[in-house]
Amino acid sequence: MKLSKLLKIISTVTVLSLLLILPLAAEDIYIRRENGIIKLTEEPERDDEAFLRQAQKPEEQELPGLEELQDIIAENADRFDLPEVLIYSVIMMESAGDSTALSEAGAQGLMQLMPQTAELLEVEDVWNPEENIRGGSQYLSQMLARYDGDLDLALAAYNAGPGAVDQHDGIPPYSETEHFVEATRSSFEELRREENKIFFYRDSRGIINITNVK
């Protein structure tokens, strides 16, 4: 599953609003789905592959810097019911995408798993991106469940441990943890805003298209 599958389906209200404000000369607007992408277009339904070959449409958004890990991130997002961009944000904050990262405290790999945490999650090779992301995603999912979906507390527990969160009845007053929570949440929210944008373009044949992928 590519990142485009994370993009939200445009609501009926949004679609109707767009149709009311667009200065389109066409008599009909067609709603189509191509490769999981919602699109409004002047062109009626026809062979999708032929359409995609001919149209000069914007490229699909990628996770910057982690293109080679997208499939692994997507697989674990599905497995643990997490947004892909949340896993991505944690990876970038923890290791900047470096699978060989090792912290002074002993946290290892892309999602900076502590050895005891990796053992509990049955991660056999913490330096293997597939295993590391699977373990980190599972742990993040567990923390979200533990704190009833509170993202800030889940991120704090991911970084400092649930014991510290419980002890302080909230985000522990550690500068590293406070920075991690703030920066990761900001990254996640920014990527989510990008997902919800609507883009307009005219393809090589002059046909107007509206899509939620840049």
Walkthrough of the structure:
- The structure is a single chain.
- The protein has 214 residues and is an alpha+beta fold.
- It has 2 domains: 3-59 and 196-211, no CATH class; 67-193, Lysozyme (Orthogonal Bundle), CATH 1.10.530.10.
- Helices cover 48% and strands 8% of the residues.
- The protein is built from 9 helices and 4 strands; from the N terminus they run αββααααααααββ.
- It has helices at 12-21, 48-54, 70-80, 84-95, 115-120, 129-146, 151-160, 162-168, 175-195; strands at residues 30-34, 37-41, 199-202, 208-211.
- It has a 4-stranded antiparallel β-sheet with strand order 1-2-4-3, with no helix packed on it.
- Strand 3 (199-202) and strand 4 (208-211) form a beta hairpin.
- Helix 6 (129-146) crosses helix 7.
- It is globular and about 60 Å long.
- The relative contact order is 0.15.
- Mean pLDDT is 76; it is low at 1-27 and 46-62.
